[in-house]
Predict the 3D structure of the following.
Amino acid sequence: MSVQPKIGPSILNADLSNLAAESQKLLDNGADYLHLDVMDGTFVPNLTFGHPMVKSLRNKIKTAFFETHMMVQNPEQWIEPMADAGVNLYTFHVEPVQDVVRVSRQVRESGMKVGLAIKPGTEVQDLEKYVSIADVVLVMTVEPGFGGQSFMADMMPKVKWLRDNYPSLDIEVDGGVGPKTIHCCAEAGANMIVSGTAVVGASDQAQVIKEMRDVVRSYLK
């Protein structure tokens, strides 16, 4: 299988006043990428940060792979600003978008990779017609909008369906994922693992990241 195990800590639970140092520490401890949660207060009830903060983080951290998870009502609005801020992977939710193909094309034309995300209530088959234009598909394992929620194991059939049908696709899970739930995700076929509290709050971040990556790798063989 050509997909690789990748661990991308969500910095939502990090000390946002010290974000560059916290992010660099995660990368030094083995994180493969950084998962940046952008919320607009409309698509989800919470509000986080926007492209100015992403850009300032990029100015401090030059080479790391940045994914922005756009939990926003109008993802088109932020494509150019996020591309300008140095984002590598622009993951947006399909639910509020009228023309997923057009938005995906705009993302790609701006120089970023395309990620398509679905909430727990969205059928994975809704993505079928778009998988060919996506670099990553993100299956949410909590309701988007808040950190620290409990993992929803009943989302795993979506991951398995994607892996069975698209063996070379990068499949990401996000929400409540940590050492206790990683086996469930890896067995279903997820290879990109977003983990917030379990990694950011760990006394030994490097150990937790390595442990989760090893579990994912064991299932990818």
Summary: The chain has one domain: 6-220.
